[in-house]
Amino acid sequence: MRVTIYHNPDCGTSRNVLALLREAGENPLVIEYLQNPPDRATLERLIADSGMAVRDMLRTKGTPYKELGLDDPAVSDAELIDAMLAHPILINRPIVVTPQGTRLCRPSDAAAGLLASMPEREILKEEGAPFIVARRITGDNAEFVQALRDAELPVNDLSESARSFFTFSTLAGVHLGYGGFEQYGRDVLIRSLVVAPEQRGKGVGRNVLAVLLREAFDAGARTGWLLTTNESAFFEKSGFKPVSRDAAPASILATRQATDLCPSSAALLSRAITL
């Protein structure tokens, strides 16, 4: 089975994914879908094989999404696909098909999980940041716990339920940091995000956060929340906005982070999780 990428050459994310596939030794079939859009059966198969909802495969930025009224939740999947076929710019990109699976690779790091083998050297994205690989860890991982302590972040509730934690590294295995979330239905509390000291000041943090949000998205979350005492500016650059605690769902306000582990002065921020 040949690897295929539904590619937009004007999209930096799509270019990064294509470069990664080639560096990994693949010779992908490149379909520039704006000029050669898939037919209905192919598009439906791509969406089904990705495991995503039709609506989640829509691109909203820089498209006629709102003008066509597609933000109305009453619009059916069939009608959404009709719109995507009529306006291929609505198909989010890049979609990659491999023997390992089919995936919408946003952020571009998401393509790493589709590689049959990792590149033999470190690969950087166009903006100079490394590709990031996320691996699950348990809350009692000793290095993780120590990193949180060193960063003066809470460690007293790491073993409780509804928590997912990850270690992040480059393709070549260079450690970048840790992060996690607590999930309550479609809401997640982003937490325990710490970048390795030697990686700070390089833009690694925002890329790690993007990968963490994709993990939350794949778990079914659509709104992210977090509490911070001194990093509001960092998170706001990644789309989080300050909100009052009255705006948060009860499940988030009932977390240990909100009730006793973070000071009452901690700012609450939120953002939609989309691709």
| Order of SSEs | EHEHHEEEHEEEHEHEHHE
Number of domains: 2
What would CATH call the architecture of the largest domain?
Answer: 3-Layer(aba) Sandwich
Could you tell me the number of beta strands?
Answer: 11
What structural class results from the helix and strand content?
A: alpha+beta
Helix content: 25-40%
Q: What percentage of amino acids are in beta strands?
A: 15-25%
Mean pLDDT: 96
Radius of gyration from the alpha-carbon trace, in angstroms:
19 Å
Note the total helix count: 8
Task: Describe the main β-sheet briefly.
Answer: 7 strands, mixed
CATH homologous superfamily of the largest domain? Gcn5-related N-acetyltransferase (GNAT)
Unreliable sequence segments:
none
Which word captures the global form?
globular
The CATH class of the largest domain is Alpha Beta
Distance between the termini: 27 Å
Structure description:
The chain has helices spanning about 10-25, 40-50, 75-85, 140-150, 205-220, 230-235, 250-255, 255-260, and strands spanning about 5, 30, 95-100, 100-105, 130-135, 165-170, 175-185, 185-195, 225-230, 240, 265-270. By secondary structure, it is α+β, with helices and mostly antiparallel strands. The mean pLDDT is about 95. It is globular and about 55 Å long. A seven-stranded mixed β-sheet has the order 5-6-7-8-9-11-10, sandwiched between helices. Helix content is about 25%, strand content about 25%. The protein folds into two domains: about 5-115, Glutaredoxin, CATH 3.40.30.10; about 135-270, Aminopeptidase. The chain has eight helices and eleven strands. The longest helix is centred in the last third of the chain and has 15 residues, at about 205-220.
